[in-house]
Amino acid sequence: MKFVLLDRDGVINFDSDDYIRSVDAWLPIPGSIEAIASVSRAGFEVVVVTNQSGLSRGFFGLDELEAMHAKMRALVEALGGTIGGIYYCPHLPQDNCNCRKPRTGLLDAVEQDYGCTVAGSVLVGDSMKDIELARRKHCRPVLVRSGNGAKTLASPGSAGDDVRVFDDLAAAAAAILDQR
Questions:
Q1: In this structure, what are the phi and psi dihedrals at residue 77, rounded to the nearest 5 degrees?
Q2: Which phi and psi (to 5°) does residue 18 adopt?
Q3: Are 83 and 110 in contact (CB under 8 A)?
Q4: Fewer beta carbons below 10 Å: N end or C end of the chain?
Q5: What is the pTM of this model?
Q6: Rounded to whole angstroms, how far apart are CA atoms 47 and 25?
Q7: What DSSP character marks residue 9?
């Protein structure tokens, strides 16, 4: 199976230092929904893997998070694409859980649910945590400048030779489709 693994905040939707707390605040970055739909229509299994500590912080509840994800799915489906799965870590950084990126628990769950490895898949993110996760699971790391990507790119060691960098998810998706 060919996966395209996506971080959510800063890659698919605009991010906020104050957290995305409601379905109304969840706003897609221009071109991101079209990018997901095009990759899905091309035969890739699109899976979202995201840290959502706002749940544990009490900034939003599970119903609100599910409403955000339903909105995202509906927008993609309206363009003929699908999101195969959405995996999230609800824990705080200090909880020391296995599912908080850059630890591998979210991708371990994807592998278990799908019965195959994600190794060799593309993982698109905007932070060093996404790059580290991609490397730990032998995925191909892609960094987008949207969200925290520009700041991540400016940090030492972020963009090794194995990291491809694009302005946004739309540009990354175009490159993914060109390489298939």
A1: -65, -30
A2: -95, 10
A3: no
A4: C
A5: 0.96
A6: 22
A7: B
- For residues 140 and 158, give the distance between their C-alpha atoms in angstroms, rounded to a whole number: 14
Nearest to 130 by CA among 1, 22, 12, 2: 12
Cα separation, 57 vs 144, whole angstroms: 27
> Could you identify the residue written with the tokens 């030492």?
156
Q: pLDDT tens track of the chain, all 180 residues?
A: 899 999 999 999 999 999 999 999 999 999 999 999 999 999 999 999 999 999 999 999 999 999 999 999 999 999 999 999 999 999 999 999 999 999 999 999 999 999 999 999 999 999 999 999 999 999 999 999 999 999 998 887 666 788 999 999 999 999 999 986
Question: Is residue 7 among the annotated active site residues?
Answer: yes
Residue found under tokens 């996404």: 130
Options 9, 15, 126, 130, the catalytic residue: 9
Instruction: Locate 1 and state its tokens.
Output: 């199976």
Known active-site residue 95: no
Looking up tokens 């969840």, which residue turns up?
26
